[in-house]
Amino acid sequence: MSASPPRSRLRPPAPGAAVTLRPAEARDCRRTWLWRNDEETRRVSFDSSPIPYETHERWFTEALASDRRKLYVVLGEGQEAGVARLDLDGRQARVSIHLAPERRGQGLGPAALRALADRAFDELEVDALVASVKGDNHASLSAFAKAGFAVAEAGAVVMLARSRVVDPHPGPLPPEGEGASMPPRREVEGVVPAPSPPEGERVRVRGRAGDRRR
Asked: With b meaning 16 or more CB within 10 Å and e meaning fewer, what string describes 41-80?
């Protein structure tokens, strides 16, 4: 995704417009090759050299047949707009995405990444997603952040990660009057928990619990 996207000749999608994914098919080989060989896509890729069609065709055929690689075509309001990929490694998957040049700057990237995460967590039973992005690729970094990815390691190459959200209290509530077993508090490295108030003092909490955001 380009930090300075060219002006699209298509009408940008309306806020909340549908962005979906469909499994890639053999007929998508040439269009994904053209997207991958776009000058701006190559500039922000780790391998910036042009890819011969024969090389891409061989890779694409192997990817479709692989159980460890999942290719999806990004659809913006039903129109092909890019390609997203999951490389599976046990319960973890590496994410890659690039959009068609004429569909950049329309807000499709974050929506496509969220849809990809849903596929990974709900259908493929993946627990964690990771991605690598060049540090100067601000548009891509912004898209990942909007899709719920956090920076795991900063530098010339930024490592990003997103984990599955697991309900800490599965199952029915205990009968009235019975105590609930709470999971142990998990400490986060580098985060110092706030001290408890002195015994006998009251703490005033502002706002409602329902206002908290995850």
From this structure: beebbeeeeeeeeeebeebbeebbeeeebbbbbbbbeeeb
Token code pair at residue 45: 């890729």
DSSP 135: T
Domains of the chain, first to last: 21-163 (3.40.630.30)
Q: Is 30 helix (H, G, I), strand (E, B) or coil?
A: helix
CA distance 116 to 95: 9
Q: Would you say 175 and 157 are in contact if contact means Cβ atoms under 8 Å apart?
A: no
Burial class for 179, CB neighbours closer than 10 Å (0-12, 13-18, 19+): exposed
pLDDT digits (tens, 9 = 90+) for 15-29: 445 899 999 999 999
Instruction: Give pTM, 2 decimals.
Output: 0.70
**Bridge partner list, 20:** 75
Half-sphere exposure of 185 (CA within 13 A, CB side): 5
CB burial class (10 A; 0-12, 13-18, 19+) of residue 31? middle
pLDDT tens for each residue of 97-128:
999 999 998 999 999 999 999 999 999 999 99
Q: How many CB atoms lie within 10 A of CB 146?
A: 14
Beta-ladder partners of 158: 133
The answer to whether residues 81 and 108 touch, using CB atoms and an 8 Å cutoff, is yes
The number of residues in the chain equals 214
- Cβ atoms of residues 60 and 23 within 8 Å: no
